[in-house]
Design a protein that fits this description.
2 domains, 142 residues, alpha/beta, five-stranded mixed β-sheet, rod-shaped, Nucleotidyltransferase, domain 5, 7 strands, 3 helices
Length: 142
Amino acid sequence: MKGPAINGKYTIMAEINMIPFIDVALVLLIIFMVITPVLMKSEILIRPPVVTHGDTHAQNDTPVRVQVSKEGAVYVGGKVVPRDTVNIALAGVLSNARNQSLLIEADQDAAFQHVVKVMSAAKELGVVKMAVSVLEEKKKRR
């Protein structure tokens, strides 16, 4: 494109049209904004805890066992306890909550909210040592 005439001669226009450049930059920005959350979710790595064997010199106290069934029934000391009175039942079983350990054995199909309710009740009572147990699948007999 030729610019205006100066002294009867045409000069070359040396301006860059920025409108297409801005359009392309905005489209790329929108693409990156949409793709980034998807990429971040797929890149999150979770490292599960590693099970280590405890110290053999540790205190050999037997933990208080609480079972949670598939239906959500809670058993403390082998006796069924209503879910809203779990903290009262635990208080009766735990003589020294700070030094005693609690083992929660839940069915694999039990809703997690029932396990959390037991954990919350134990935390309110001051239990420091708490564990959730899982059962290993037994080998099939041949």
